[in-house]
Design a protein that fits this description.
This is Putative glutamate--cysteine ligase 2. By secondary structure, the chain is of the alpha+beta class. The protein is about 50% helix and about 15% strand. The strands form three sheets. Strands 1, 2, 3, 4, 5, 8 and 9 form a seven-stranded antiparallel β-sheet that branches. Strands 6-7 form a two-stranded antiparallel sheet. The longest helix is centred in the C-terminal third of the chain and has 23 residues, at about 260-280. The model is unreliable at about 5-10 (pLDDT under 50).
Length: about 400
Amino acid sequence: MATPDRAAATMTISEEMAGRAEARGLLTLGVEEEYLLVDAVEPRAVEAVEAVFDQLPDDLRGAVQHEIIRSQIESASPPQLELRDLRDSMSRLRAGLAASAMRAGARLVAVGAAPAAGPRARMVDAPRYRRIHECFGDLSPGSGLNGMHVHVSVPDPETGVQILNHLRPWMPIFQAATANSPLSGGHDTGYASWRSLLWERWPTVGPTPYLESHEQYETLVSDLVASGAMLDKGMLYWYARLSANYPTVEIRMGDVCPTLDDAMLLAALARALVATLLRQVRDGRPASNVPHPLLMAAHWRAAHDGLEGLNIDMATRQTRPAWKLMRQLFEYVSPELERHGDLDTASVLLGRLREQGTGAARQRALLSRHGTVADVVDWLAAATRGER
């Protein structure tokens, strides 16, 4: 729910980078991450966002912004061509935010929803957020919900809409891979991504509909604004959408990842998938119009199971182990991973994710061994800082 204009400024690319991308036939890549702010000692969330902003160094201020709740903060990396440059940028952002939070008496935690019980956090006092609260009431619960959004460049909006159609069957597996919020109120919710269940209460959250054209996309967005279901284009919360301000497809893939390794893997896969689908669009291959209820079922399974359980193979409409679908995605996009120079890194990171499990699986393992949510939050804070 960050201010759209500020996010757009961060995602703007230079003419030089645009020229290099076009000359090499590559797509640019940028990532937005939302984080929870927790107490320096206790696992509960704290309303520390203004104190953290006061501690930010000047060189980070343009890439950091408020979220709707005072116990949240968001960063947006500049777009990059090279995955290593994206990692360097995100590493600096995480480290700088974590250090600023520490100076403010708090901790930065990359987690989808607050694991521990605590008082309800208040909204940030800004005109847009006040209006959201007036129109939608208490749909943004507790301490806030934290996601990861990946921006991949597309040549034009019409092509972008066709890519959105092709993306629809793949979105549940991204959601499963990012699952990182099994705990809420100090207990296991039974879901790998509890954030997903809370987030779906907003009226425009859900799978992207099958769209015939960019004109239909714009008409539908206008109709949704007119209906009151959203205030502006920034409140279009489909799992994949066109950026309202910049020529990208924005994949709103799920919970913020606990580690940069996880985030880099999924960002690389997202870019490779968009590049693969771009070729299909240019070849005139139509997207499969997967039924909306089936997509909803797959997203529910992703939220419930993560990668450790089952999901739906959209080609066969049968349930399969989610890890097999993840491997299928990886193999499908491997040619574009290689063309963008990401294949070796992504292969290593996929193996690491397979060995360690999703953020949800790691949190549950810690809770099983140590038995306290405080231990889980300690680990999450260390992982966010790059110490795990």
